[in-house]
Design goal:
This protein is an alpha+beta fold. The chain has one helix and seven strands; from the N terminus they run H-E-E-E-E-E-E-E. The protein folds into two domains: 39 residues; 92 residues. A four-stranded antiparallel sheet has the order 4-5-2-7, with no helix packed on it. It has a three-stranded antiparallel sheet with strand order 1-6-3, with no helix packed on it.
Length: 155
């Protein structure tokens, strides 16, 4: 069985395709190697990168007058609008609904407000650990119960 003859155009096209593949691999390698360096540099130079994520614990002390609501303010000294909160652990997981994070000011201090509605009134030993992050946070203070209405400025 004989192999079909390969003309010059096919060989040239194959060479160009191989060169393009090689170029793409080289560019990808350069990006992979330089991206972590640029990220590390931007994090160390950015004034917003002061505090990392932090765990805070809320319990029955942080219940509001509204039935089944947990609401707390955590001072961060940041006014950045970017904040994230997620549950980490709880003594009563079945009671939890989504936790919300909102940037606010409380009693003249800047930080975040964490709120969550519970399915039922929790027992006295209720506790929930929430991992929080706010862009530009200088630190995370001790959670303080917030009983006022949903306002941007709670002071």
């Amino acid at each position: 069985m004989s192999m079909p003859a390969v003309d010059g155009a096919m060989t040239r096209r194959g060479t160009i395709m191989n060169e393009l593949k090689f170029s793409c691999v080289v560019v990808a390698c350069i990006l992979v190697l330089t991206f972590p360096l640029t990220q590390a540099q931007s994090l160390t130079e950015s004034p917003a990168a002061k505090a990392t994520a932090q765990r805070v614990t809320l319990n029955v002390i942080h219940l509001t007058r509204l039935p089944f609501w947990v609401s707390a303010f955590v001072e961060t000294r940041s006014t950045a609008d970017a904040c994230v909160a997620t549950y980490n652990a709880s003594s009563r997981v079945e009671l939890l609904q989504p936790v919300f994070c909102d940037v606010t000011e409380f009693r003249g201090k800047r930080g975040i407000r964490l709120t969550s509605n519970l399915w039922a009134y929790p027992p006295d030993n209720f506790a929930v650990t929430i991992t929080v992050f706010q862009q530009g946070a200088q630190y995370y203070g001790v959670p303080v119960v917030v009983t006022s209405c949903n306002k941007r400025n709670l002071s």
